[in-house]
Structures are given as structure tokens and as C-alpha cells.
Amino acid sequence: MPYARTRIVNPKLGAFFGIFTSAFAGLAILALIFEGLDVPLPMIRTFVLIGAFVLFSVIGLASFTQDQLDYFTSGRRVPDFYAGLGLAMTAFGATGLLGLTGSFFLVGFDALCLSIGGLAGFVVMAVLLAPFFRKFGAYTVPSYLGRRFDSRAVRLTSAGLLAVPMVLILAAELRMGAFAVSRLTETPPSTLISVLAVVLAVTLGAGGMRSLSWSGAAQGIACLIAVVVPVTVVAVLMTNLPLPQLSYGGVMKTVGRGEASLGLPIVLPPALAFDLPGEGLQPIAKRFSDALGSVGPAAFVIAILTTMAGIASAPWLLPRVAATPGVYEARKSLGWATVIFGLIILTIAPAAVFLRAYLIEVFTAPGAARVPEWINELAALKAAAVDAKGAKLQLTDFLFSRDAVLFSLPVAGRLPAAAVEVTAAGVLAIAMAAAGSSLMALGNILAEDVVNGLSWEPPAEGLRLTAARLSLAVAALFGAAVAIIAPTDPMELLLWSLALSGSAAFPVLVLSIWWKRTNAFGALAGLVVGFSVAVLAILAGEGGWMGVDGALAGAFGIPAGLAAAIAVTLVTPHPSKHLFELVRDIRVPGGEILYDREMLLLKRRKMKRS
To answer: Which end of the chain has less neighbouring CB within 10 Å, N or C?
Structure first.
């Protein structure tokens, strides 16, 4: 039925989020005031972190709903900007934010392969997948695949396979959120992981996608403030301009000259080398502007393509476009996602350059080089260390934690200590947003496609919401257990999850829309072969059985899944006429939402039988 978009989109959203932005800014200003009044630093840290926690949680709890359309798709009334903000912030999450900032600092522009891949992923999603997924309107990717191919086997298989990368993302974000807080408190990471999981389960269980959409938008705004403002202040101190994204070129030239004078090497790696920094303290590996020094040329291209496919088909991102009012808004949301994601990338790169500039000043200042006070402060936070190997201090004697570089810049720039706490609150915000996105998608898959996967008819509304909330709690418990029991580098978990989702889902999703001939047999083959090959490639790469890093597993899984889907489809019967017509309807941008129409018909049939 036609509808007026202005009636279903809340016109007061701008005012509500303006109030939240003022509240979060007030929290930061109060922290600065307390620091000026000599309030003990631990108390300021507690105030900032608990204050941010309460703000995010209240929004989630206030979004409580008992309506299933609200729970699963936020009533399909999330404006394009807020949907894009959620997509941009949850694509890489806190893992990507901290990991990429540290990688830029330690290995320079080689980290661009992941940034370019993320941006390309949004473009591919906008062109090939998102508008058509939005037209279909399914709550989960397995639900879409099951109905697109009219196969319960496809639905159950895709649910089992796609749950794996979402568990990896959930564990990575819980660990990174706990890392951000534990650096400033004495609380053990395992305790913080458990607390984060419980808070997410409670706040998202209240309103489902509705809670995720609005609390995620608030968390995205908080992250933008916490990341952009400190870097902008440092940019003013170093360049006299409040635009770090445009003004750091002169600083980078100074850094390059300093690196050359200090003898930092130019590295020529093998073509398939993929040596991005890992966890732990480590030195600067190469000159910042020297491209392809830690990542080989072939690996650079492969990383872009696999990251692109993983983001475009991510089962924790695609369902969020179903919450927009229409296909047009779904496309616009991807445009906003690209802009906001690009803004983040263009901010963390100069942050890395500025921190390198502060480090280079240690050696270019008059007199003998000596350890500056800000390094000692970072050492107290376990974010840096000095490992002097000789009488004369060298640049490579300074060791930095990859995931603490973003926190290190305010310290090196001699900003107020409260700036570090506000940055930690921003990282906590994006960690909660990304963990919430994967948790929501995982819980919905468990409830919709595993528990009810053998039936096309959904259960009664009350039972359906109860199952979804219980599944959400189970998923939170499992994700927290994985994060605590298997403490793998979060950045590796992110890259593996992108490789697995790209290998399993990307070929099948693209074929399901753009090749009508694709049938259930081909979809099953593509899912299983792509996922299996990617898993084997990850194991082989991590075990050293082949010369390709496990993060590049998508280079094997995606072509294998595509070839298997096409080959099996060609040797098996054609799909039914109904499925050809379904694909035709998916490609039409206007009209009824196909999933909602199907649910309504099933409901009417059930009522007639009763």
C-alpha cells in the first residue's frame, strides 16, 4: 500500500540527537572542568566511561517494543543518514578503528588496502545488492536466500555458515571494547567482556533493531566527536588549520625527511607478503610514505578485493538496509556510509602522521636524543616502551602498541588527560555499536532460520519475539565465551570474518539477483565450497603450509564459490517459473515489500485454517 514517508519518519529525530550530542559534549566538558579542579584522574575516568555507558543504554532501553516489525526492522522508518551512519561505524567497528590507526602509524600507507576495500565494499553493496535486498525486505540474509531459492536446505545451511563470521566479529568487538576500558581502569578484560555482553543483550533485547538503530546512531555520533575533535586540536597545534584531513601533507614531508635522516629502511617485500602489525609492542617497520613495504603488490590488490566482497555481503550489515523507508533511501544510506567511513579513514591517517612527527622531534630537537615525558606516560598505560640496544637512542628503540596509537596522540600532543578518557568513550561507543550489529544479526538468524528454519510459516507474534530475545541472549553468551576463551588478535578475527562472509555469501548473493538461472543446488554448492575453501586457506596460511596469509583466504574462497555455484547450476534443472517471477519483482525498485507481502499471505492462510 502506498505510504507517505514523512508520516513514518519521526520529524523530531534531529532534535533528539541534537540533545544527545549536547549531552555527550557536556560530559567531555565536565571532564575537562573536573581535571582543572584537580579531581583525581581515576574518578574522571569512571565518570566519563559510566556516563557514556548510561547514555547509550538508556536510548536502547527506551526503544522497547512488542511489535515484530519494529523489533526486526525498526518499523522500516530509519532515515538514510542514520542508516548510513550505522553502516559506516559497524563495518570495521572499534577493531578497524584502532587496528587501522596503529597500522598506519607502524607501517604507513600499506594499511590503505583495507581502507580502500571498505570503501569499495559500500559502493558494490549499493550497486549490486542493497537496493534489491531492501525490496525483498527479509530480516536476515539466510531468510532471503531460503525464499529466493525456495529451499529450506539453503536457508539452514547459510544460517550455519554465516553464523561463524558473525561470532568472530562479535568476539573481536567485545575484546576491543574491553581493551579500551581496561587501559584506563584496573578491571580485568574478562570481566569487562562479560559486562559488555550483558548490557548489549539487555538493551538490544528491549527493542531489537529499533534499539540498535537509535543507540547505534548515538554511538556513531559519540565516536565521531571523540575521534575527530582531538585530532583536529592537534592539527591546529601543528599546522594552524582545523582540517587534519587536508592539512597534514606538510607534516608528512617533515616526517619523511626525518625518517630518511634517521636511516629508517625502505623495504621491498615479496608480491604476496601481508605483514600488517599484530598485537603487542613493536617498532616502526618502515617509512610512512613508502608504499608496498609490508604488504606486497599482489597482496595489496587481493586484500582490497576480499575486503570489498566481505563488506558488500556482510550478514551483519545487509539486514540494516531493510530498516530504511524504501529502496531510494537504501541507496542514499550507502552514500552516507561511504562519506562517513571516508571521513574516519581521512582522520586516522593524519593521526598516525602527527604521532610520528612527535616521535621524530625527539631526534631533530637540539641536543642529544632522550626519552620524552609523554613516552613515559604511555609506558605507564602499557601503550609504549623503550628498548634501547645501545648507548645512542635510535628510532627503532621505541615500541608502540598497535591498538593504543589512537589513545597515544592526545598524550603526545600534551592535551588534557580528559581527552584520553573521551577518546576511550568513543572507542567504547563504536565497539558497542559493532558488537550490537553482529549480535542482533546472529540472534535473528538463530531465532528465524535455525529454530524456525524448517517452516515457512512464522510463529505467533508473541512467541516469535520471545524466541528472538532468547536467541539474542544465547548469542551474547556464546560471543562472550569465545572472546574470553580464545583470545586471538581482534584484527585477525575481523579479516577472517570478512574472508569467510565474502567467500560464502558474496557469489551466491550476486548470482541470486543478477542470474535468474541460479537454482538451489547451485546456491548450496556456492555456499559450502566457498566457505570450506576459505576455512582451509585460513588454516593453511596460519599454519605456514602455504606462502599466503590467512587474511587473504577470500582470494581462494570467492572464485571457488562462484565457480561451484555456476557449474552446479548448469548441470541441474531450471528453477520454477515462480522463482523467475520473484527475481523480476526483486529488480523492480517500487511496489510492495515482497517479504512483508508473503508474511501477510501466510498469516491470512493460517487464520482461514483456524
So the answer is: N
The neighbouring-strand residues paired with 400 are: 282, 384
H or E element at residue 500: helix 490-514
Q: Output helix, strand, coil percentages for the chain, rounded to the nearest 5.
A: 75, 0, 25
Contact 546, 510 (CB under 8 A): no
Cα-flanking dihedrals φ and ψ of residue 193, to 5°? -60, -45
Which set of grid coordinates corresponds to residue 491?
584484527
Mean pLDDT computed over every residue of the chain = 91
Give the phi and the psi of residue 401 in degrees, each rounded to 5: -85, 125
Which residues are registered as beta bridge partners of 386? 398
Distance CA 54, CA 100 (A): 28
- Cell numbers representing residue 58 in the block: 538508556
> In this structure, what are the phi and psi dihedrals at residue 507, rounded to the nearest 5 degrees?
-60, -40
Q: Which three cell numbers stand for residue 122?
A: 559500500
* Pairwise CA distance, residues 386 & 458, whole Å: 60
pLDDT above 90 coverage of the chain, percent? 78
Q: List the one residue out of 610, 482, 565 whose CA is nearest residue 148.
A: 565
Q: What is the pLDDT of residues 424-481, one digit of tens each?
A: 999 999 999 999 999 999 999 999 999 887 777 778 878 999 999 999 999 999 999 9
Length of the chain (residues): 610
Q: How many helices (H) and strands (E) does the chain have?
A: 25, 3
Q: Count of alpha carbons within 13 Å of 441, Cβ hemisphere only? A: 31
User: From residue 497, how far is each of 90, 172, 272, 469, 524 by CA, in Å?
Assistant: 13, 10, 20, 24, 20
β-bridge partners, 373 = none
Is residue 583 within 8 A of residue 513, CB to CB? The reply is: yes
Instruction: Give the three cell numbers for residue 444.
Output: 535473528
The DSSP symbol for 265 reads P
- The count of domains in the chain is 1
Lowest mean pLDDT among 36-45, 132-141, 320-329, 588-597: 588-597
- In this structure, what CATH number is given to the domain that contains residue 119? 1.20.1730.10
> Where in the sequence is the domain holding 164, given as residue range(s)?
5-609
Strands (E), 80-165: none
**Closest alpha carbon to 233 in 223, 224, 222, 244:** 244
Closest CA to 458 of 69, 145, 66: 69
Residue in the block written with cell 606486497: 296
Query: Distance of CA 495 to CAs 81, 307, 373, 499, 549, Å?
Result: 27, 8, 36, 6, 11
Positive/negative CA dihedral, 402, 403, 404, 405: positive
Of the candidates 429, 540, 400, the residue with the CA atom closest to the CA atom of residue 199: 429
The single residue listed with the C-alpha cell 614531508 is: 253
Which pLDDT tens digit goes with each residue over 191-216? Answer: 999 999 999 999 999 999 999 999 99
